[in-house]
Amino acid sequence: MPQLHKEAVRHLFDGLALEYAGGRERQLSFRAQKHVVLQMLRNADGRILDVGCGPAVLESDLLRRGLEVVGIDVSLEMLRYGLNRLAGSPYRARCRLLPGDVEALQFADGEFDAVVCMGVLEFLPRYTRALREIGRVLRPRGIAVFSVPNRLSLYHLSLAAVRAGKRLLGRPAPSFIPNRCMPFLLLAQLMREGFQVLESQRCGAQYIVKVRKAPS
Description:
By secondary structure, the chain is of the alpha/beta class. The chain has helices spanning about 5-25, 30-40, 60-65, 75-85, 130-135, 155-170, 185-190; strands spanning about 45-50, 70-75, 95-100, 110-120, 140-150, 195-205, 205-215. It contains seven helices and seven strands.
């Protein structure tokens, strides 16, 4: 990803940190996504990497399951709120929150038993480097769960129509538009990168997929 794009993403989420920390978990859409993601991770054990952890909205649930958790985010403000959230947790010793870039993960090959990646891929121009890095840090037969906006959902189809209409009328449209996925294209790319698709589910305007890294 170009550095200027990364800086734009970092700036965006620094500005959203307070909103995410204060109300993200009360949003019905996010609660539904979180429920599906946690269900897909129901058999995960050992060490899990939370890519794009934000203000640590998954960490408490993962820690209560006995997992060792490492969360990374590009936004230092998100991490600050996450650290504050976990400050009083009895499981704090099993969790680290660090700045990190999904396209250049600072972890050893096969270091994690599972990876969760919610709300990250759509901010990348292309998924290839991120998927390869996630595959690299996963152990053979390790599990990964991805949540991405579904371009084919009614919500995103209508949003695309509104943006197109604004452009035709000469009105400004948002310049920083996430890279929403087409599920069948994402599935094909995951398989090309050596993942086996285990299950997938549409959840409102999101598409959530669970994969396993192929054995070496």
